[in-house]
Specification:
Chain A: One of its GO terms (cellular component) is ATP-binding cassette (ABC) transporter complex. The complex is a heterodimer of chains A (274) and B (331). Chain A is mainly alpha-helical and 274 residues long. Chain B is an alpha/beta fold. Chain B has a domain of 55 residues. Chain B is built from twelve helices and 14 strands. In chain B, strands 6-7-8-3-9-10 form a six-stranded mixed sheet, with helices on both faces. Chain B has a four-stranded antiparallel sheet with strand order 2-1-4-5. Chain B has a four-stranded antiparallel sheet with strand order 12-13-11-14. In chain B, helix 6 runs parallel beside helix 7. The radius of gyration of chain B is 24 Å and the shape is elongated. The relative contact order of chain B is 0.14. The chains are: A mainly alpha (274), B alpha/beta (331).
Chain lengths: 274, 331
Amino acid sequence: MIQTIIRPEVKQVRFVTWNAMMTIAGRDILRFLRDPMRLIFSLILPLILVGGLTGTLQSNLGRAVNYDLTTFSIIGMLAMNLFQTPMMGITSLIEERETDFSQELFIAPVSRYAIIFGKILGETTVALVQCIEIILSGLLLFGLHLSLTAALLLIPAALATCLFGGAFGTLLASLSSSARAASQLIPFLIMPQFLLSGVFTPIRVLPWYLDILSKLTPLRYVVDLLRGIIYIGDPAYNQIVLMNPIFNLLIIGVLFVIFMVAGTYLFVRNERNR
Amino acid sequence: MVRQSVLSTYDGVRSQQKTPSEAIVFVQDLVKRYKKSSKNAVDHISFEVASGSLFAFLGPNGAGKTTSISILTTTLAPTSGTVRIAGYDLATQANEVRKHIGIVFQKPTLDLHLTAEENVRLHATLYGIYPYRMTYRMMPKAYRDQIQELAEMLGIADSLFKPVKTFSGGMKRKLEIARSLLHNPDVLFLDEPTAGLDPESRRRLWDYLREVRAQKGITIFLTTHYLEEAEGADALCILNHGHIVAKGSPQQIKDELTQSKLLLHADDRESLRAELQALGLPFVEEELFSISLANQQMHKVLKAIETPLTTVKTFTPSLEDVYLQIIRQED
């Protein structure tokens, strides 16, 4: 009877690490689909933000800046969602540490990086669904301008943004000793980023001290990357985009590696070195 | 004194019967001191577990059992010491160690939002036994066949696709054990697996574990508060304040640390007292006269006593008596 459980020989599948990442990602997607409140909230909130913000900004500040703030703010919120969803999803590792589920993950014979990356992939899928929703609502309801080239370039850029947000979330998770500590730390680190990264309002002109702080916020580079892609060929490009998308991508790449390696190392070390 | 005696006996037996290469778990001079603590939670412990045996870790709360098992299962880093499991060094080959062990933690590690099948699938694909697919239907037939058989064996065929949060405590435990065996581990670590279960669930779980051992010959490393569970172990370690205070087989520990007692009563208590003193037998006088002796001496003592006895009883200590005696001596 026990042969049912224990097969005489357990052969491993090929690409064990990839299989493990898919498993972890699949679990996060399943959990997302099984959580009706999160599902509804994640689908409705972007609509509320886009609907509530674009009209307000365009009506009051559109003339002052001399370009269309509707597209500007939709892309800002798109970047924010793509960055924030994986970031928040990864911090669920802290919650899982408290419910002891993370032990099931961390006793598996797979790389610690694969475990974290699997979680990021799962949350990235969730974020990409929201991304499609924001773009479709922007196109259909709020007059978003998007060329086919920009739409195609947006796919890898959105993926890079999600991975970057996940890596940043890993670093935050590694710095938080408990879910309570994380709930205090995250708003403290994320709220200033919304203001300083140009999600809602232009940041081309800033006082020197805010300019320094702005350049220290990771979100700034993904917001600017996405705008750099969306505004390719647009006359307002030089007014809106702060830096060449290639440079933004380079900075994102370097920071991703640093956040991912340092975050995973610290998270695992904190788990084991108590 | 007690500890030395037992340790030397155990080590003597082990050195004659088992060589270190036969030990599936080898622990030497293991130390763990938690951050911000001034004391070692595990303090220079050394032991071996023979392949295929049932090994039990006993001790009161805070003795260091869970800390030790956490280190052995790679979820906690030791402060110092050497650990080898299935021939792999814990410090340098943690991933290999993980492949060869199964673990059931003290607190359930099932995802309560997933179904029983999804929990099992997560484990099977995480360990690379099957390729991951998003739904049960998309999983390979071999997996579906295995999971159906498993569900029937656990008696959860009707609940296989229900969230685990609807399961009873005993059912969750069984599911966790079944899950931990999927990748065919050499050693199964069970950290207080029956804690919080009612007696019937405990019995069923042990029947199940006995079946697992009989079929597979897997090594079981158990921590428990229940002395009767440890009584059936091939070898055990008693931990207190991070130290090993006794180790060996339950019988070795009982023989080494306690003696059977002869309990006597006579109407003429004064005569019996004088006679025991004259025979040079140490005794404790309560309602009955209690004399500690080895079994083979009982007949000799009884023959030597001439005072008419009204009560003759023998008392053989259980593992629980031994355990309590050791812990009280230590405290």
